[in-house]
Amino acid sequence: MDRECRRLPVTVLSGFLGAGKPTLLNQYLDSTRIEATLQSCVLSDEEMAAGPEVWETWEDPFGGGEPSCETEPSVA
Fold first, then answer.
1. 3-class DSSP assignment, residue 2
2. How many domains does the chain have?
3. What is the mean predicted confidence (pLDDT) over 69-75?
4. Structural domain includes residue 72
5. Is it the case that residue 1 has pLDDT exceeding 60?
6. What percentage of the chain exceeds 70 in pLDDT?
């Protein structure tokens, strides 16, 4: 198989109606931190003009490494 596989961590939050799922979720959502993270992903005009040759020299913010392909889903 020649396609590149990447794993995306996913958390499933479930519960009965009225169990407080949104309350629990909102405790973990920090809009200030989320906005700062998204803003750090945006390239400036100078960075965009630098082009792919320069981009490839930058450190991988996701840690690099080889993509992982698993045929069986893992359950935590």
1. coil
2. 1
3. 56
4. no
5. no
6. 74
CA R_g for the chain: 19
Of 71, 59, 74, nearest in space to 1 by CA: 71
Q: Is residue 67 part of a domain?
A: no
Q: 23 by DSSP, 3-state: which? A: helix
CB burial string 26-46: b at 16+ within 10 A, e below: eeeeeeeeeeeeeeeeeeeee
In this predicted model, what pLDDT tens digit does every residue of 45-66 receive, in sequence order?
999 999 999 988 988 766 666 6
Structure token pair of residue 76: 């935590």
Structural domain contains residue 29: yes
Model pTM?
0.38
